[in-house]
Amino acid sequence: MSVSHTLLALLERGPRHGYDLKQEFDAQFGQDRPLHYGQVYATLARLLKNGLVEVDAVEHGGGPERKRYAITAAGVSDVEGWLSRPERPDLYLNSTLYTKVVLALLTGRDAATILDVQRAAHLDLMRELTRRKTRGDLADALICDHAIFHLEADLRWLELTGSRLDRLADEVRR
Amino acid sequence: MTGEAPRPSTGQAPLLSARDLRKTYGPTTALDGVSLDVRPGEIVAVMGPSGSGKSTLMHCLAGIVRPDSGELRYRDRDLITASDAERSALRRSEFGFVFQFGQLVPELTCLENVALPLRMEGVRRKEAERRAAHWLDRLDVSDVAGQRPGQVSGGQGQRVAVARALVTDPAVVFADEPTGALDSLNGELVMRLLTECVEQSETAVVLVTHEPSVAAYSHREVVVRDGRIRTSAGLSR
Ligand SMILES: Nc1ncnc2c1ncn2[C@@H]1O[C@H](COP(=O)(O)OP(=O)(O)OP(=O)(O)O)[C@@H](O)[C@H]1O
Ligand SMILES: [Mg+2]
After folding, report:
1. Which of B223, B208, B133 is nearest to B178 (CA)?
2. What local confidence, expressed as pLDDT, does residue B2 receive?
3. Fold of A1-84
4. Is A170 an 8 Å CB contact of chain B?
5. What is the interface pTM, i.e. ipTM, of the complex?
6. Cβ–ligand 1 contact at B52 (below 6 Å)
7. What pTM, to 2 d.p., does this model score?
8. What CATH number does residue B158 fall under?
């Protein structure tokens, strides 16, 4: 999963301090692996350098200064590009795709389109494997079938998620 | 991996051309503005959840169901204004059909079943059965020629049904869940034989299925949801 794209997309909902961003990330996606603060600040520094975020306020309290970050126009189009691109079908897919779907719902985009784009990418790969299978020998067929069954499982997940988008939207926005 | 699809040229004029098809059944909107072109030799998978309108779309394209509005042409013929007689003549001579099950006449042998569409076209019995035998052979079910549908397995029955759909050398085959009642090995065999046969004859196929592994035999897929074809263009807000 791309932490920098995820943080960027979360910033699209409004400017945030690094601390709040981490809390939000952990609450939404950090079930098995919460972010380290170091990772959050390193990522924000890189995004800042690349012009995808900017510092929109600095607070000088008693302790160290606290920066508040806001997404830039370039940042928004970077998020847009990432969400629109299908993931390469693979076994780690579902957690990335789950993240994309939740972020689309949080940022008011059409999550169903993300699922459609991914289905098309999966079917393209299935076509290719099916062609290889019909041309090859039994060993080819068995290898292709293994991959095809994994793609089928992903596709079932895409279908089911597609029919539960309304409920998921209610839950993640709560 | 090499990704060369044997895809028919997209420059060719469409065989079937549907624009903004609408169909309601009482309060139910089955089709809500569907547009689709099918070109010669093209295998188009129609996917989507149950009740989304896949079969209705197929029945409209095949001239079985008349849409409430929209445009629908087969080659240069207008299927909306054509009479019922013209439409059924067209179905017999230009189209072939494969359904999930229950399409073979139980009283006839498999050979007679495959010969039946030719007989209805007026082909003499001997010639019809000769051509039927050829198609049973292509589908690798010559051995059940003399048996009745009730005596053959589901997989054999579907291959006989495919032979019957192809025996008239149709321009388009309409297949609604053709492997829905088969296990994956038999489903695969039916799809492989069907696609091999149509590839050689430039026959187009409209393939309704919700199984991705079956849709993988198509050249492209359209996804129907709530009576509309979903497009995956752009991430709108
Ligand atoms: N002859 C009919 N009379 C009344 N309603 C119909 C008729 N045919 C279809 N419908 C309705 O139109 C809608 C679309 O049905 P259709 O059979 O096209 O769906 P489908 O996508 O083929 O579903 P499935 O995957 O379950 O076969 C459904 O709500 C269905 O109940
Ligand atoms: Mg149906």
Report:
1. B208
2. 39
3. Arc Repressor Mutant, subunit A (1.10.10)
4. no
5. 0.83
6. yes
7. 0.83
8. 3.40.50.300
